[in-house]
Amino acid sequence: MAAAKGVCLNHIARETPNVKRLAEFYQEILGFEMIESPKFAEFEVIWLRLPPLFSLHLIERNPESKLPEGPWSSTAPVADPKNLPRGHHVSFSVSNFDSFVQTLKEKGIQVFEKTQPDGKTKQAFFFDPDGNGLEVGSWEAPQQ
Fold first, then answer.
1. pLDDT per residue over 119-144, tens digit each?
2. VOC domain spans which residues (predicted)?
3. Counting beta carbons within 10 angstroms of the beta carbon of residue 67, is it exposed (0 to 12), middle (13 to 18) or buried (19 or more)?
């Protein structure tokens, strides 16, 4: 039996040198909405929500951080979505997979597409402007 009860995913945080640029990407590409964010004196944050419940917190990168800057999700020296490790990405479902992927390509976003052996499930892998791995799939979103 798990120690925690009533667990649900609250948010995912991404550190970035440019919170406004990353917020615009997630709003334009995936339809996130800006929500009220706390104001911190030391660093900038923007909080986004994908209705009904999923939140993404974009946090200004600590300039004193010893960690290297992205692309975090790629093991290759060039951010090629073919090299996106299978265990390091955030995934979304979309109901308009083909037109969504076409829009990514029109915006100059490099996409690696894959169709599962069932011939029905399609996946697209790509990176946000900071090199964070993203996946979009054609499967139906879970019902609430």
1. 888 999 998 988 888 888 887 755 65
2. 8-139
3. exposed
